[in-house]
Amino acid sequence: GDSVTQMEGPVTLSEEAFLTINCTYTATGYPSLFWYVQYPGEGLQLLLKATKADDKGSNKGFEATYRKETTSFHLEKGSVQVSDSAVYFCALQGAQKLVFGQGTRLTINP
Amino acid sequence: SQTIHQWPATLVQPVGSPLSLECTVEGTSNPNLYWYRQAAGRGLQLLFYSVGIGQISSEVPQNLSASRPQDRQFILSSKKLLLSDSGFYLCAWSVHKAGEAFFGQGTRLTVV
Hints:
heterodimer, A: mainly beta, globular, B: mainly beta, seven-stranded mixed β-sheet, four-stranded antiparallel β-sheet, 11 strands
């Protein structure tokens, strides 16, 4: 069945460091891919998405490219900030259901 | 605009008692509806999803059940709660495959 595997956390970086959070997926057909973010004390919200192969989603300096050949959707940011500290979830939307990875807790130190 | 209501926000229930969590969506028709559980320090586990009235798909065998009596109403139930049912339960909806999913505020269930 459909599944998402995320890089295990927690991840701790210094401000202005480069960030990569790995995400790979298994799915039948052609799913849409998403990154959601959960800031401390808040609910989940969409960060970015890509709906077909080679699409690049971007928002708030974060980027992720839908790679069909490697079944991956890695999240990247060139220079992180303290305000980026949160839990990040990779997700795929198949024909019917929305499946999430286990989440990666990111902490950015000043 | 679309909104999602989930209640109650917090619930403490004794082992063996029944459970009913309700989720309603406003401002959209025929949404896909989902129940997730988020255990402490862990990810989002999909429990049930529904693509239409009376259509429920279960992802994980467990002590819970779900029902969709109306287009925009999704209910999570249990006849007898277990300690292991404790967790943070989230309801969500989406309109179509490529659409964003919107989450309720969640219910923190503690079984004692």
